[in-house]
Specification:
- The complex is a heterodimer of chains A (409) and B (64).
- Chain A is of the alpha+beta class.
- Helices cover 45% and strands 11% of the residues of chain A.
- In chain A, strand 8 and strand 9 form a beta hairpin.
- In chain A, helix 9 packs across helix 12.
- Chain A starts with 12 loop residues before the first helix and ends with a strand.
- Chain B has 64 residues and is an alpha+beta fold.
- Chain B has 2 helices and 4 strands.
- The chains are: A alpha+beta (409), B alpha+beta (64).
- At the A-B interface, helix 16 of A face helix 1 and helix 2 of B.
Chain lengths: 409, 64
């Protein structure tokens, strides 16, 4: 169904990058370091043409320049927004506001959802996130081998997000499938087939919206259906787009961050022991996990032909904004390639930079903190059970999916 | 010595108020602001500097 198998392997990432190439998926960090030293803005003809800046300085410049770079589509794929039938909504709103929105509409859409993700309401979720983590750990019991991905990390964000949106928690397998389609189904060349992939998700959201219209309740879906801007309710496409955004952006991002943190601790017994013995280090350790294993890369489109530091960018070229690459730039971080669990100064860009800073960052941080805290409390010693079998998600969200961990006594 | 946050630069990463909740608060959008008059003491200066050094948007300034 996808062209993945027939895509030629990348030989030179500076002139032909592909973030789904097996080498990039397996270990992108040496590739990015090489690009920083030789060609800080890599180019590709794939996906219709695109650029990948590998330095913190250039990532930051583009993230903060909403005049030359639009967020109308933030997931690199083979189709431009205008090629869709009907074309994707224009930039001011976009398909999934506010992530797909540009100023000035962006701020309106963003302010609608920020209060729900501010520290107050988010911190109130702590007891139920903790109870969920403890339940997952109870389920693993005394097994010698547990799976940090498929038995733990992957369950935490969907439960929280479905509760916030007011969706049935038992549908969470479906949510993971939707996320997979949105983020990992980018290679499907046939537009009709690609559209058909999205149909079950569209139908699911329609069903949830209808249910909330009939039975309003205290959750984000009812809030979006009823909130007014300038005396008017939101357009249905806006509501639906924001709901899709919250579901997709809230699930495998945090799942990846939790998984990558556990992967690191399983491979680094000294860091694990330190965190077990000095739990007060957890807040700075979380920031270092976020810097070192930042899961999320976002895209932009070039608005018009533009010369970016000598790179002849063309209208509608993709920009893959490598926040994870920016986080490993030695020009921005001392010993950038070293994981330092008590790193004091850590101006990382894991949640993006500029006006599109991850709206759910407080929630992500809370889920990560509790998930790791509870895991190491239950299992103070563990290691990777089968390092070769660890698989990483392909695409713009990076994290371990299969993560077998051996619990040590 | 006085600390301030440039509200136009702050994007709500939350680093300052997590790190130094006695110096910084957050509003209902989750953006940071300085509690009180922002005047720093020997007890708060170091942590204000640390928060400044950790702000991803370079939104915090300390007036000498």
């Amino acid at each position: 169904m996808t062209t993945e198998a027939v895509k030629p392997p990348v030989e030179d990432f500076a002139t032909d990058w592909d973030h789904t190439d097996p080498a990039w998926v397996a270990d992108p960090y040496p590739i990015w370091e090489d690009l920083r030293q030789t060609c800080p803005v890599a180019h590709t003809e794939r996906y219709g043409g695109g650029w990948f800046p590998a330095t913190h300085e250039y990532v930051s410049e583009i993230a903060n320049d909403t005049n030359h770079f639009t967020s109308r589509n933030v997931v690199v794929n083979n189709t431009r927004p205008d090629e869709l039938d009907p074309p994707a909504p224009p930039a001011p709103i976009g398909v999934a506001p506010p992530i797909s929105s540009d100023p000035p509409f962006h701020q309106i859409a963003r302010r609608l959802i920020l209060p729900a993700f501010a520290p107050g309401p988010v911190n109130a979720l702590e007891p139920q996130i903790r109870a969920l983590c403890q339940r997952l750990l109870d389920n693993m019991g005394d097994a010698e081998i547990v799976n940090g991905g498929s038995q733990y990390a992957q369950f935490i964000p969907p439960a929280v997000i479905s509760k916030m949106l007011g969706f049935p928690e038992e549908d969470e397998d479906m949510f993971r499938h939707f996320v997979h389609i949105v983020l990992e189904g980018i290679d499907e060349p046939d537009l009709e087939v690609r559209k058909a992939l999205f149909t079950p998700m569209e139908e699911y959201f329609t069903k949830q919206i209808e249910d909330h219209q009939a039975n309003p309740r205290d959750d984000l879906t009812s809030y979006l259906l009823n909130v007014e801007v300038g005396g008017q309710k939101l357009q249905m496409e806006h509501i639906r787009g924001t709901m899709v955004l919250i579901l997709v952006a809230g699930i495998d991002t945090t799942w990846s961050a939790i998984g990558a943190s556990l992967w690191h601790l399983a491979k680094n017994p000294d860091d694990l022991a330190r965190l077990v013995n000095e739990p007060e280090l957890l807040p700075v350790a979380i920031e270092e996990f976020l810097r070192f294993y930042a899961p999320v890369t976002m895209a932009r489109l070039v608005v018009d032909d533009y010369d970016f530091h000598g790179c002849p960018m063309k209208k509608d070229d993709w920009i893959l904004l490598g926040f994870p690459a920016a986080n490993r730039d030695p020009a921005a971080f001392k010993d950038a390639d070293q994981f330092i669990i008590d790193r004091e100064i850590n101006r990382h860009a894991a949640f993006g930079l500029g006006i599109h800073r991850c709206a759910g960052s407080n929630l992500a941080r809370l889920e990560m903190t509790i998930a790791i805290e509870e895991f190491i409390k239950r299992y103070p010693k563990f290691e990777l059970a089968d390092p070769e079998s660890v698989t990483w998600a392909q695409g713009q969200v990076r994290g371990p999916r299969n993560l077998p961990i051996r619990i040590l006594k | 010595m006085k600390v301030s946050i440039d509200a136009d630069r702050c994007q709500g990463h939350g680093r300052c108020f997590n790190m130094a909740p006695d110096i910084f608060g957050f509003d209902d959008l989750g953006n940071g602001y300085v509690l009180g008059d922002g005047v720093l003491t020997s007890g708060t200066l170091d942590r204000a500097r640390l928060a400044q050094a950790n702000c991803p948007e370079h939104a915090i300034s300390i007036e000498e």
